[in-house]
Amino acid sequence: MATKKSASSSQGLLPWLGVALIVILLDQFTKTLILGFFQYGDSRHVLSFFNVVRVHNTGAAFSFLAHAGGWQRWFFVGLGFAATGFIVYMLRQHGHQKRFAWAMSLILGGAIGNVLDRLIHGYVIDFLDFHWNWMAVMFPGGHFPAFNIADCGISIGAGLLILDELVRVRKT
């Protein structure tokens, strides 16, 4: 009986790991393009509110701990591995809950994408630069901190987790 449940939860896990893999591949492909076509610090204007840039982030979101002296690289790699284990466990247990599983899969793909950067380069490659004048009160020149596809997966996944919880609470 335990073998049947294990096989069933593995089959339920595979599609969600596939979603995470798509995020990882898109993230790494776009970062490879940036590395190939941009030098560190380059910026290309695309729209009045959007540039493609090449920046390196040794910290976490909003460059948190970026100047911590190097130990943060391994801290964030370890955190990424721990998050990966936890998320895979949660997907095995709750893969039937579609919105929750989408959220966790997107977060998983984003986390692994950024961990790969830290392992390969020692920093995360960011390249999406959005800017608006009204944001100047919070960010220098109105530029939101640059981010990447992995960060998009994490952010969208976090939003879906919040939505999932709000919907679940409303049902009870």
Task: Explain what this protein looks like in three dimensions.
By secondary structure, the chain is mostly helical. The protein has one domain. The chain has helices at 2-37, 71-94, 98-120, 149-171, and strands spanning 43-47, 50-57, 124-130. It has a three-stranded antiparallel beta sheet. A hairpin with a 2-residue loop joins strand 1 and strand 2. The longest helix has 36 residues, at 2-37. The chain is globular, with a radius of gyration of 18 Å. The two termini are 32 Å apart. The model has no long low-confidence stretch (mean pLDDT 89).
Q: Separation of termini?
A: 32 Å
Total beta-strand segments: 3
Overall average pLDDT: 89
Low-confidence runs (pLDDT<50, min 5 residues)? none
Domain count: the total is 1
Report the portion of residues in β strands.
5-15%
Spatial arrangement of strands, main beta sheet: 1-2-3
Report the radius of gyration as a whole number of Å: 18 Å
Query: What sequence of helices (H) and strands (E) makes up the elements?
Result: HEEHHEH
Helix content: 55-70%
Count of runs of 4 or more consecutive helical residues: 4
SSE class: mainly alpha
